[in-house]
Amino acid sequence: MAFIPHTAADVQHMLQTIGAESIDALFDEIPQSLRIQGLEGIPPGLSEMEIGRLMSERARLDGRPLSFLGAGAYEHHIPAAVWAITTRGEFYSAYTPYQAEASQGTLQLIHEYQTMITSLTGLEVSNASLYDGGSAVAEAALMAVRAHRKSRSLRLLIPSTVNPSYRRVVQSTAGNQGVQFDTVPYLRESGCIDPAALEAYSGQDITALVIQQPNFFGQLEDVDRLTDWAHAQGMLVIAVVNPTSLAVLKPPGEWGTRGADICVGEGQPLGVPLSSGGPYFGFMTTRMEYVRSMPGRIVGRTVDLEGRPGYTLTLQAREQHIRRGKATSNICTNQGLLMTAATIYMTLVGPAGLARVAESCMARTAELVSTLGQIKGVRVAFAGSRFHEAVVLLDRPAAAVLRQLEAQGILGGVDLAADYPELGPAVLVCATETKTAGDLDRYVGALRHALEAA
Amino acid sequence: MAFIPHTAADVQHMLQTIGAESIDALFDEIPQSLRIQGLEGIPPGLSEMEIGRLMSERARLDGRPLSFLGAGAYEHHIPAAVWAITTRGEFYSAYTPYQAEASQGTLQLIHEYQTMITSLTGLEVSNASLYDGGSAVAEAALMAVRAHRKSRSLRLLIPSTVNPSYRRVVQSTAGNQGVQFDTVPYLRESGCIDPAALEAYSGQDITALVIQQPNFFGQLEDVDRLTDWAHAQGMLVIAVVNPTSLAVLKPPGEWGTRGADICVGEGQPLGVPLSSGGPYFGFMTTRMEYVRSMPGRIVGRTVDLEGRPGYTLTLQAREQHIRRGKATSNICTNQGLLMTAATIYMTLVGPAGLARVAESCMARTAELVSTLGQIKGVRVAFAGSRFHEAVVLLDRPAAAVLRQLEAQGILGGVDLAADYPELGPAVLVCATETKTAGDLDRYVGALRHALEAA
Amino acid sequence: MNQILEKSIFEYSQPGRGALAQHPPGDDAAVLETLPSALRRRTPPRLPEVSELDAVRHFTRLSQLNFSIDTNFYPLGSCTMKYNPKACNQYAMLPEFLARHPLAPDTQGQGFLSCMFELQEMLKEVTGMKAVSLNPMAGAHGEFAGVAMIRAYHRARGDLARNEIIVPEAAHGTNPATATMCGCVVKEIPVDAQGDVDLDALAKAVGPNTAGIMLTNPSTLGVFERKIEAVAKLVHGAGGLLYYDGANLNAILGKVRPGDMGFDVIHMNLHKTFSTPHGGGGPGAGAVGVSARLEPFLPVPVVAREGSAYRWLSEADRPQSIGRLSAFMGNAGVLLRAYVYMRMLGREGMSRVGEFATLNANYLMARLREAGFDLAYPTRRASHEFIITLKRQARELNVTAMDVAKRLLDYGFHAPTTYFPLLVPECLLIEPTETESRETLDAFIEAMVAILGEAQTDAARLKGAPYTLPVRRLDDVRAAKQLELTWKPVNSAA
Amino acid sequence: MNQILEKSIFEYSQPGRGALAQHPPGDDAAVLETLPSALRRRTPPRLPEVSELDAVRHFTRLSQLNFSIDTNFYPLGSCTMKYNPKACNQYAMLPEFLARHPLAPDTQGQGFLSCMFELQEMLKEVTGMKAVSLNPMAGAHGEFAGVAMIRAYHRARGDLARNEIIVPEAAHGTNPATATMCGCVVKEIPVDAQGDVDLDALAKAVGPNTAGIMLTNPSTLGVFERKIEAVAKLVHGAGGLLYYDGANLNAILGKVRPGDMGFDVIHMNLHKTFSTPHGGGGPGAGAVGVSARLEPFLPVPVVAREGSAYRWLSEADRPQSIGRLSAFMGNAGVLLRAYVYMRMLGREGMSRVGEFATLNANYLMARLREAGFDLAYPTRRASHEFIITLKRQARELNVTAMDVAKRLLDYGFHAPTTYFPLLVPECLLIEPTETESRETLDAFIEAMVAILGEAQTDAARLKGAPYTLPVRRLDDVRAAKQLELTWKPVNSAA
Ligand SMILES: Cc1ncc(COP(=O)(O)O)c(C=O)c1O
Ligand SMILES: Cc1ncc(COP(=O)(O)O)c(C=O)c1O
Q1: Ligand 1 binding residues, C-beta < 6 A
Q2: Is there a domain that residue A414 lies in?
Q3: Chains A and B: how many Cβ contacts under 8 Å?
Q4: Residue B420 to residue B219: CA distance in whole angstroms
Q5: Could you tell me if B383 lies within 8 Å of chain C, comparing CB atoms?
Q6: Helix C332-370 × helix C110-127 angle, to 10°
Q7: Residue D361's closest CA among D262, D429, D273, D461?
Q8: Contact flag C44-A352 (C-beta cutoff 8 Å)
Q9: A117, A406, B359, D407: least CB-packed within 10 angstroms?
Q10: Tell me: the pLDDT tens digits for D345-368?
Q11: Neighbouring chains of C at 3+ CB pairs within 8 Å?
Q12: Predicted pLDDT at D4
């Protein structure tokens, strides 16, 4: 039997030991009326050989297009060592390190991760991962409500330059607790938060301002000014950042005079494959003063009976398995393996390598955008600095143009029609370090052709 | 610097410790006239990202045709666990287990392998692998010359039903020591060794008879009779076998009254990917009485200082690093990692699974051959039992037909024109357990079309 | 397991060192000049500067400091630590699957989407539910989706007062935590001496404010909730809905289905029942299934088949959806692993899971009882897990469940779940799973017997355990008091 | 490293158990009826009958009993145990490469063949040879090809008497073994006190029977053969050819080339210089390079480029070839790994290999000398390796090289090569390679110093080593006397 080691003799012996007549007898406490006799709707089992072939055929159906998609998930080079090590059975098949002495590998690795990610974001403490970037923003919102003792409003400002998916996740998650989100509009010229719109909230009781940097459009917000403004208003600041960008961009801990209070983001760019959207991981860091409001697991260094250093889960009194209905979050299983991959990734690229990745992404995007901008029928939407994404405006509906590119094996960008109809036909494009000059040429050529053809 | 950890400070410090001015100074014993200044013919270095893309592009060029090729290398299902474990750093990046105490993993695994392969072949002792099937036959020939004290002829009989590649390897290897090989022809009806031709050697001083089972044509030789005949003539018997087939075919140790004396073969079918021809591994087993004539490494079980069991390389006095010019072979580095994969493979399929694989191969080939035989212009070459290969004769030159199939993504078999011109247009086809009914249909349809079209 | 501690990766680091093959080619530093200096980072982050070899060696050595399924028996109750087939990993990690962008059009993902669709269908079949969303990324996330759907359902009916979630006191911590997170009020009810829900207490608890009840069946007490039909009747009668915590689905796979028991909404832990790996903490996948009346509220996206094509349904197709719980579609790679696993098991294999998980648990329970351990529910069948209580040993020998757990590590076995459920004192919740052989169970029993012997003759031995691991027992109190949450250059520990 | 012994896989085995997902579908047993019963197997082979989990757990645990590059420093002289980049493995194992059948037509392998062609070209460039064959599957196999070519060359010229191969006494065992295997007679010549070949002895050794000389340079003594030009002149003058054992190529990569030194034929150990892994014993790849006059004799197949297409040359294209040394083309997968490695290094990286391998060796040598160890060749530069001799310690303290080697294991370092070359008593041949950091070298030095201290104060400590590994020192004599070469059901060991 696949994955079941029992021989007929084993079954006999075991039933005898138990004193049961048959395996079926072991289910005799289940009301007979509820019992089912089989699962006819499930297809018959496949051998590993058959499933291997099936999956390979399905994978081939999905193809390997040349992609300029970003919008929260980014194609990066992943060193071979990352997954060679991450998939080692000792990491891959271990449980949450509740038995610390038998889990020093995972625990030390998380501690190293906490060190790296706090340094990258410029804050003091980190948890061991959340589900993804979107849910991390939601957890940050709830955390801000808990941490900000003086604010009673349950109101947060969430600009429209924050990833629309994240805004949806925040709404479906924190909305249940009555938290309200006010959307702050952006400026048409810069694609950045409209300061005037923000000013309207001056003096109100608002728990926190969310700032995404680089923002959803790839544009860079004036984070210092925004942070200082929010702090002056008595709001907390929740930073939503791309970890790759932090190799070159000012870390949230240094935004403005006091720095952001909570920082979250999508960890996928750090060595995690795109994989249709997951598993990724959300990261979260904050100031030491808020550590007890933070959701998720945290690893601390301690000593053993003999005084040797060792690592263990700590501050568990915040968590559901101890605090139950009063926990900081219901999160239990997190995204540990992806955090593991990210830790190995950050180690392999190092500070210089991560900066090179960031620079290369910026440079490729700058090259792409400047060339695209020269095509008739294409306009770059926003002025100002950007990281590795940009919005380009087209002279006709984007969907059809993207379909034309797709036919040539190119995914030309994310159509913004649904989320930002006010822009007209608009596409969010992204070029990372994986794109060669030849790739950019191929895209530009195909787009030119598509716009000229029609 | 890629793969070199030295910082500038390290270099400074190390040179100072050495008392050298520069790294270049460390090469001052090399005659200046011989020094070169660089390697202009080597292209500039690539990042891992670049080489990854390059290799992926090249791999794609090679495609994934539907293959009916065999002739010594066979497509089989390989359980995912085999290479997931084999490529673990502790196996993959370890050296030969000369320091036994630090290599118990590899040593115990080899010991387990020796147990499995001796049982599979029905003989008593095994080495830890040779280069491949071809070189294993060559080593067996040389071993027979050493082991057979009474024979002084340096002559072996090697039927034409032995893989022609193996025969070439044997010639280029053992030929240098003056060993001679007489080719014994096969019978046109059965594709098996011609007993009459063999009889001609009766009474001569011949060191050994080589018998391949299943033979190169996939046909089954009458191994009992051949073995008894050879032994009656005072020859040793060298069996060349396919390990998969031994799940259902009589093991060499049981051939005839006394069994074969040396057994060798290609280990590739046991969990090793086709990989354009290598790395594979040759296996070799023999009787205990010949163990000291056997080439290659051998692992024995022993005890440590405290009496606990442990494993170590043994009988090293046969080997080149001890016996030098008088060693049983010059082999040093072998194919350990492939033997590792094979051991895990044999463990995962087990005796029942290996029998299922063998049966499935036989059945698929039988189905294929019987259907092909119904096509006009196709004839099955030989009668009699076979394992998982067969020769089919065509009514026109095979090369052109195979090219037509190739154009449809089908590799239709191995053209025998060069090695067996006497057969006329002939193709060696093979279907393993990896072939579905749909695959067979595709092949049959394409061949029918090719033969009708022209 | 490795027993030599490994230094911190930061201790390998030297300024200027690096794995240069990992850097992108060329030099684009000039592009930074397009950045206003106020936006630029001033000091580089403290990431390690090490060679590739140092990194590989460090993390390989770290890995060896772990227990894992691939190296140890792991009878961790409530966690279903079964074998994670290597095939699931290999085929979920095919290059095309890994490279696919989440926003790639459906036309560039029919292979992937067909797997997701079929997974939805299979999950419906094994649970008896009417519709499934694969979106939630863990069990607790699924719970959140479930309770949010319950609330949305009542709200859609104008039934606005229903904000109470009932949970038995044995419930997993995520249940009450989820209820709170959804803005509900938690009401705990007791279980009786046999481990079944106290129906009288339940009858008193339900009312016009009842949003629903969260149950797992078999319960976290390791027994099947026999009065489930009565419970369903009571709650439904009061206008509430039934939520099924699928953490224990492994026990009943192919035998009985939550949908047939009367549950309205359920989450499944694919990382338990469907064997995706735990990865040292995650990822998981907490797909949710619902009865017909909750289908409109399912979180998006959901895969639909239209003719021979597959496509994602979004908010536009499902206007009543509770919305989106993740930025994209959830833990796709985990779902692919579960898909491969389920297809390999097939219909017969799936039923065998429940059978053999139950057989192993009952065997272990019988043998441990015989060996002198006290069962928490001695009159009951074990489901796929069961509880022993060391209350007697704690009293008589001053040996705790924690001591036994730590000592087990020395015998090469991961400890069972300790101190959960909270209501059983000094408990060990033991779940062997169906993938372990009789020999492994016997070896575990031998170890338990040996430890019981030690407890009687040399209790101090247990207090000091473990002895053979990389570290001895760790000081959790110090960890929480002297917070050292990141590595510091000067070695601040003792 | 794991310290708990693992039982035999056969002890997990139970009749009727198995990993059923690995069986092909269906039932074809009927096909066996087509077999004459005399040809059929009567009793099944003794392969383990275990579950997939047991197999995974067993072999994972076994792996943890090993030292390896990925876990330990491995200063094994003559073996060049450098880091094996993970990228080489990943890209050599792309599905298309793995699936390609060796007899697939060249048209279905242009990607693979182009890599092989470029590899040949790169190997020519780094060695200064005129042509390369990738066929041999290890160093010794390359040696065989080389000596066979030398013989074929003489034979082709009608020079039939030349059957003597000269080797320095320091030569690796494969050199004389190869000569014998090629039907040659081995003549050993001494080296002088400085480690250079004794030219007078060489002059006496060469003559009309000289087929050639086998040398490695730097030699196995860890020093560069300074008189190489004189050696070449002598041997060539006598009508012999020069064979270069490429095992030590790492030392001189980018600095000096065998072709420029006057060698006629050379093998390379791609599993040393070009970083393919050793795999616990293999596989390797022993590509051979030759000067123009030997090109016709190269073993087949060899890749040629014709226009933009690549194809294999076979016996038909190369009628004078020594023939075929493997059934197919050699260790393709190993060659792909070497190709990836060489392309990543590129021209600058390639030269740095020799530089930093030499820097590390000389640093280690200087520090160990300073620490009180005796060098075998104290007046010489180290190449990429060097020798210390414990002759003095053996005499004074009764401590052998083996004792030091075994004790090093307790410190977490693999031992250097011991007792090779044979002519240096109680020697350790130490090769750090370029991929190790100064910190690792320093830690090794510290361990060596500590062990020297132990030798002086407590020699017995060394005799009993190792202590911290899964086994203490093993009884090799017993292993050879009481041969237990396979597992037997009844435990026959103590
Ligand atoms: C009974 C029970 N419910 C819920 C959960 C939560 O699941 P997850 O950890 O996947 O969020 C668990 C997991 O430990 C559990 O055991
Ligand atoms: C100097 C020298 N020559 C030859 C060889 C033989 O190479 P291989 O083991 O690849 O056959 C070795 C390998 O150990 C060696 O060190």
Answers
A1: A 332-333; C 78-79, 138-140, 172, 174, 216, 220, 245, 247, 269, 284, 286
A2: yes
A3: 25
A4: 15
A5: no
A6: 30
A7: D429
A8: yes
A9: A406
A10: 999 999 999 999 999 999 999 999
A11: A, B, D
A12: 74
CA distance A216 to A164: 8
By the CB < 8 Å criterion, does A142 face chain C? yes
Question: B37-62 pLDDT, tens per residue?
Answer: 999 999 999 999 999 999 999 999 99
Kindly state whether residues A266 and A323 are assigned to the same domain: yes
Residue C3, pLDDT score: 62
In this structure, the answer to whether residues B71 and B109 fall within a common structural domain is: no
Distance from D300 to chain B by nearest Cα, in Å? 11
Q: Which of A336-340, A449-453, D293-297 is predicted with the least confidence, judged by mean pLDDT?
A: A449-453
Residues in chain A with CB shorter than 8 Å from the CB of B52 are 77, 80
pLDDT at C162 over 50: yes
Q: Does ligand 2 come within 6 angstroms of the Cβ of D135? A: no
| Residue D400, ligand 2, Cβ within 6 A | no
Q: Which atom of ligand 2 is nearest to the CA of D141?
A: 11
Question: What DSSP character marks residue B112?
Answer: H
Residue D436 has pLDDT above 90, yes or no: yes
Return the CATH number of the domain spanning residue range C354-478: 3.90.1150.10
Report helix, strand or coil for B84: helix
User: Nearest CA of chain A to the CA of B53: how many Å?
Assistant: 9
Mean predicted confidence (pLDDT) in B368-372: 97
pLDDT band at C188 (very low <50, low <70, confident <90, very high): very high
- From the CA of D383, the nearest ligand is 2
Residue B274's nearest CA partner among B286, B266, B264 is B266
Query: Is the domain of B389 the same as that of B326?
Result: no
Whether B433 sits inside 8 A of A49 (CB atoms) is yes
Q: What is the pLDDT of residues A411-431, one digit of tens each?
A: 999 999 999 999 999 999 999
Give the three-class secondary structure for C52: helix
Query: In this structure, is residue B37 part of a structural domain?
Result: no
Q: Which chain A residues touch C128 with a CB distance below 8 Å? A: 36
Q: Is the pLDDT of residue C78 over 50?
A: yes
At B430, which amino acid appears?
C
* Cis bond upstream, residue C283 (ω within 30): yes
Q: Which residue in chain A is spatially nearest to D49 when comparing CA positions?
A: A5
Q: What is the pLDDT of residues B6-31, one digit of tens each?
A: 999 999 999 999 999 999 999 999 99
Q: Which atom of ligand 1 is nearest to the CA of C138?
A: 10
- Do B235 and B330 lie in one domain? The reply is yes
> Which amino acid residue places its CA nearest to atom 8 of ligand 1?
C139
Query: Quick check: CB of D142 below 6 Å from ligand 2?
Result: no
Mean pLDDT of chain A: 97
Q: What's the mean pLDDT in D315-322?
A: 96
Q: In this structure, what CATH number is given to the domain that contains residue A391? A: 3.90.1150.10
Verify whether the Cβ–Cβ distance D56 to C70 is below 8 Å: yes
Contacts with A407 (C-beta within 8 Å, 6 or more apart), sequence order: none
Query: D87-345 is classed in which CATH architecture?
Result: 3-Layer(aba) Sandwich (3.40)
CATH number of the domain bearing residue B116: 3.40.640.10
| Per-residue pLDDT at B115 exceeds 70 | yes
Residue B320 in this model has a pLDDT that exceeds 50: yes
Residue A303 shares a structural domain with residue A222 = yes
| Residues B363 and B334 grouped into a single domain | no
SS3 sequence of A294-321: CCCCEEEEEEECCCCEEEEEECHHHCHH
Predicted confidence at residue C1, as pLDDT, reads: 56
Which of B321, B345, B369 represents a domain boundary (last residue)? B345
* Centroid of ligand 1 to alpha carbon of A330 (angstroms): 10
Distance CA D354, CA D255 (A): 7
Distance D213 CA to ligand 2 centre (A): 16
Q: What is the CA(D175)–ligand 2 centre distance, in A?
A: 9
pLDDT, tens digit, for every residue of B144-180?
A: 999 999 999 999 999 999 999 999 999 999 999 999 9
> What does the alpha-carbon distance between residue A404 and residue B47 come to, in Å, rounded to a whole number?
33
Q: How far is Cα B3 from Cα D349, in angstroms, rounded to an integer? A: 9
CB A6 within 8 A of CB C356: yes
> Quick one: what percent of chain A has pLDDT higher than 90?
96
For residues B284 and B292, give the distance between their C-alpha atoms in angstroms, rounded to a whole number: 13
